[in-house]
Design goal:
about 160 residues, alpha+beta
Length: about 160
C-alpha cells in the first residue's frame, strides 16, 4: 500500500479541509454539463424548477435523439451527491428517460441554469456538530401527476451536516 497524502479528490468530488469542517463539492463536474450543453452563456436562475410545475409524460413533441436527454439526466443524477437541492427535480426528470419530449429537455436546461448560478456550492460536514441525527420529512398525496401516487421528500442531518 502507498500513502498518497491528504485526500483532495475522490470520484470527481473535491474535498477541502477547513477549520469549520470538510467541504465537499463537484465544481469541475458541474462545469462539464454546462460546457457540453452550451449553457455557460445562459442567464443563471435561482430555482431549479418552477413551483407547481406539472411535467406530464406526453407533453410536447418527442425528442429525436434520446441519448442527449439521457446523458444530461445521468450527469445531473451524479451531481445530487453534493447538491441535494436538485435531487427532487432530477428525480422527476429521470421518470422520462425512455420517452423524453422537448418540454422535458427544456426543463432540464432550467436545472443547468440553476447550477450556473452557484457552481461552487457543496456540502459542509462540520467539525463542531454534535452527533445528533435529525430527520425532516414532507409528503404530498397524489403530488405526482405522472404516477398518481404521493411524493415524499426528506432530509437527514448529522448535527448540522446533511448526510442524505
Amino acid at each position: 500500500m502507498k500513502d498518497l497524502g491528504e485526500l483532495k479528490y475522490f470520484l470527481g468530488i473535491k474535498v477541502d479541509r477547513t477549520q469549520q469542517g470538510i467541504f465537499l463539492s463537484q465544481y469541475k463536474y458541474v462545469l462539464d454539463p454546462l460546457r457540453d450543453f452550451s449553457a455557460l452563456h445562459l442567464k443563471p436562475l435561482k430555482v431549479s424548477m418552477q413551483a407547481h410545475q406539472n411535467i406530464l409524460k406526453d407533453s410536447g413533441e418527442p425528442l429525436i435523439n434520446l441519448e442527449i436527454y439521457q446523458r444530461l439526466v445521468g450527469k445531473l443524477i451524479y451531481l445530487t451527491l453534493t447538491r441535494p437541492a436538485i435531487t427532487y427535480t432530477v428525480h422527476v426528470f429521470s421518470q422520462f428517460m425512455h420517452s423524453p419530449t422537448m418540454v422535458h429537455y427544456q426543463a432540464t436546461n432550467r436545472v443547468l441554469r440553476y447550477l450556473l448560478s452557484s457552481p461552487r456550492q457543496g456540502i459542509l460536514l462540520g467539525v463542531d456538530n454534535e452527533a445528533i441525527l435529525s430527520t425532516y420529512y414532507d409528503s404530498d398525496w397524489v403530488g405526482c401527476p405522472v404516477i398518481r401516487r404521493f411524493t415524499t421528500r426528506f432530509c437527514v442531518l448529522l448535527g448540522q451536516s446533511p448526510i442524505s
